[in-house]
Protein 1
Amino acid sequence: MGTCEVCGNEYWMTFEVRTVSGDVHTFDSFECAAHRLAPICEHCGCKIIGHGVEVSGRFFCCAHCARSVDREHGAGLRDTVGTHPG
């Protein structure tokens, strides 16, 4: 039985996440894993659960936040790909 490193719950179905740096984390839910490991948007402060965007080594939840902080490098970013459904 493992113990979640975020909430402390002892649970028989905990799982481990191994990071690129070699760290090993134990969680009882994806919610706790996201809380601990998800990057934080440098503009609005929300957890980046989806793809997000990276501009000049900085992480943002969306193109709007990236453009708000770095207009030069974020100018070409869009949150959607393709044409808008008509």
Protein 2
Amino acid sequence: MTRAELPPLAARAATVGPSAVREILALTARPEVISFAGGLPAPELFDAAGLRAAYHRVLTEIPERALQYSTTEGDPELRTAIAERLTGRGLATGPDGLLVTTGSQQGLTLLATALLEPGDVVLVEDPGYLAALQCFALAGARVVPVPTDDGGLIPDALAELVTTERPKLLYLVPTFQNPTGRTLATARRRAVAELAERHGFWIVEDDPYGELRYDGEAEPWIAGLPAAADRTVLLGSFSKILAPGLRLGFLRAPAALRRACVIVKQSVDLHTSTVDQAAAARYLRDADLDGHLGRIRTAYRERRDALLAGLPKALPAGSRWNHPAGGMFLWVRLPDGHDATALLRTAVRHDVAYVPGAPFYAAEPDGRTLRMSFTTHGPEEIGEGLRRLADAFAEG
């Protein structure tokens, strides 16, 4: 009997490539490698004791609820706690305005499914968040990059593209952006909001790093600006302030779009883990998250400063890099004639790693660029990693 061939994969699954960051993380998983590649929170700073206590309380006091199916919208106590936290940070929010997601990445997937038809135009920062580029490619969107400079997205360039491309949405990470660590100033945020008001496109404002500020004052959310309040979706995450293993995030959106995302989520996973939501809600009620965040900020500021202090000796003469006021990343541009992707192979032989910048570009990449994360290792390890990197660049 002849066996028939199986049908092929869907075109979107066959054509979208893997995450370069995830591939590099697999390549550098050896414990001896000092990696500046992954955007990984420092595991020694997780409040394991506080989270353990929160899980113990919910499994002792409300096991019948914590272990049961739940509503798609999310645990009411958790949504209340998130709403209170956002309101306290200057963005008035009610619990009913939120959808709890399985990490903020799921929020992006829900939005892409609810909003995008194949061929719709999505504008993104260039360079921009790699997993967002994957998400929009899987949705069949036409991704168009918006030029950036050291201050982030350039409003004049955005205005021109909005006129010529007629996008359905703009996706951006305006605060401590991934991969560059840049922050969009208030004037540029207002310009973005006014363009959305005038031309009628959605804004997806992703804010996973906003509470990791080490210098300066917070910029306003685009979602809080009157011009764009009715057309901006805010995505948030507990991955950087509690633990990424919780896979908890949230989506704040106007009612009709939020309802559409709820329906999409019903088809994806029914609801986010009940016990994890209950534990997070209990943690936010019983623990001192602000105190915990203060300890994280102190440690990450010290690590950022250690990386910045060591870069002049580690990188080739003529390299440039920024000084992020928060977040987890900084952005490097090597001198002309250097290829960050090719040099990575030499770096890995020296047991050190970074992420080449090329995969973060939606169009023509700048092969001289690379992203470095400063959160995972302490200052001494950062210093040793930079010494290895200097040897690798000298060899390369």
Protein 3
Amino acid sequence: MRHASLVACGALLASVLAGLATERQLQPASGWRWSLPGHFQPPRVPLDNPMTEEKFQLGRRLFYDPRLSGNGTQACASCHFQHLAFTDGKAVSTGSTGEETARSAPSIANVAWSPTLTWANYSILDLERHMLVPMFGENPVELGIDDSTRETVLQRLRGDADYRARFARAFGPAGGQISYAQLIQAIATFQRGVVSANSRYDQYLAGKAQLSDSEERGRALFFSERAQCASCHSGPNFTDQYADVTTQEVRTPFHNTGLYNLDGQGAYPEPNRGLLELSGKPADMGAFRTQSLRNVAVTAPYMHDGSIATLEGVLDHYAAHGRSIASGPMAGDGSRNPFKDPRLDRIRLDARDKADLVAFLKTLTDEQLLTSPRYADPFK
């Protein structure tokens, strides 16, 4: 699920949008049980798309089905691999036509608790509307559904007796018709149901596991003023963009972390300049959403453009208060970026600190998420 410039596809998008509500309910849907530890509350769910097992299983099947792309070659799962916590291990992803995206594919794990979607877009607030980006976006092309292929994609599914039965079970009598609004709701239901809350750190919080000395030092440091990690990577999902059924005021901050400073005045490389691309405000240059740190040890490379290869490199970047690139087209001192979050300058880390933080971050890996048949490819 990446930010993309969505070019409207005429009546197709208009009809899909007409079927998607914007209001979120404040209580979990009936008939669905969230299996969560005590430090999690259930997420908010749209009123018109309550969680059901039938929709979840249908959405899982659609998520892994390449027939959902215009040319029949790529599925949602082509850029979101379960064993990589639903990322793809690439700096940037490749769409169904071979076109590269501008940004790295973020994990879908725990996306139900994220009040905004993609790296730098405050206007996409639910998974249903976000699906319009990979499905119908033209810059870049991801799944590549357009006016020339929209009926072809639906006919592939309508011609499958198993899909007809699954849509009918999920949506009732109207499900037999198989519409884009229905398949979007099903995929969104699957994505909301992909939960990561059983890492060794979660077990530690529940009193069921212990941390090593290094991991414990890293944990204490992570939540300290000296490291500043938790000032942005906060809450049960380790991000300052978080909302659940108890949330009264939803915050959606975006941050510049001094990754670039091309002109000495804060510039990031085009066309990947963060929130500025949407807002047009100079102060939004290089501002991106704080990604969850859950399963971060298996989601390399890092940053919005995958430009840092390792966790050690990420910590070097923050310890230096920004990245300095000595030569080439990206040269510049990110630590002097005028739009940088000032909290970076408070960070004080030595070599042992960084090693301990890496040890702690590895405790956030949820092996159950990476291997559970519930989230796996149903076609295998």
Protein 4
Amino acid sequence: MGRPAGWTTTVTGRPAMRSPGRPGVNEHREVRRQFWRRIAEGLSSEEAAAACGVSQPVGGRWFRQGGGMSPLSLRPLSGRYLSIAEREEIALLKAQGKGVREIGRAVGRDASTISRELRRNAATRGGRLEYRAVTAQWHAERRGRRPKTAKLATNQRLHNYVQDRLAGAITDGQGRPIPGPNVPWKGRRHGRRADRRWGTAWSPEQISRRLRLDFPDDDSMRISHEAIYQALYVQGRGALRRDLTACLRTGRALRVPQARTRRRGKHFVSPDVMISQRPPEVADRAVPGHWEGDLIIGLERSAIGTLVERTTRYTMLLHLPRMEGHGQQPVVKNGPPLAGHGAAAVRDAIAKQIATLPEQLRRSLTWDQGAEMAQHVQLQLDTSLAIYFCDPHSPWQRGTNENTNGLLRQYFPKGTDLSRHSVNDLDAIAAALNGRPRKTLGWKTPAEALAEHLESAQAAGVATTP
């Protein structure tokens, strides 16, 4: 009678159980769950790897393999199954020579559970049953895998529908395909101002919702948009090729966790200078002296700064000339901002303009989270101007300034070199804008509205000299 399948012979001639291999380092699921929980909290792959005790290259590899998405459930393990902590305690008690009943009482499990655990999940490489917690956890997870075939991999009709609407060819009026630019997929997001791959480019949500209209009576033609994203991003699903991510609107090769987007923002912006901390009097525009600012960008990163007073819509322009050496030497990463709108240049330009104003018109300044305001602390010390920052991607929080920038584009169109304009040019354009009647001011000009406020303040005995 032959030996059972899965057994081999040792050097001594005694039969031994065949080992399925060596457990990988930090391969058990709980470590990966901890890693993806940290990713869900907004940490980077390096920070998440350090938090769960694995190396940074391992964390980066896990993130790429998952396409930025967790390939396993983040729900805590059911109490029905032994955890890694319980297996560590079992291994310690077993090494001390304790029996299964004593171990069961210590761990709070039935003796039969401990007996089965010691028998089924023991290490077998030496031909003997030796219980180690890490190996036992690896055995249990390997045995408990239930790989589920992706729906797109089994339903070819559904697969073709999804792929045609995601990456189908663009056609002309006669149905002839138009290939568009030849853009090789390099496994990362497309660069700025670069050709994109052409495709039908329906979003996963559009595809998912449209299936219900095109196949109202066919339940097999149903798939969620999240399943389409997983088929695109998660390696091993085997349904859609990773290079089809180039057909998505964002073109991301890796998905970005939502919590990570909430952490976006500049390091120099702290909660105490956010727009939510701005005094209520700024919102009602009753008191002048509260300003909004921004940059308008032109050709070759030329720029002009804009300052707009919220109550009167009075506008001042900041001259930001290029620094010496611009265009005469190659761009140096993290080098000096020779384009002329670096943090120091913007700080000095604002301070120079604000110094020309009466003290009552120097109350606050609201800006977006651009790097040009990295020296806002020094600016506040120089001008006594309270500075606040808008939320990321929220230009409507500086609506007055955005509207004024639109008006200024009549004089400074996009795609033109703004560095050619002198200080006199900017002052003349600002004077023209301040002399234009505004409907919101009862058809008064910003200059007239500002003069009225200053006269009222002077009549009330408030100093109006700079």
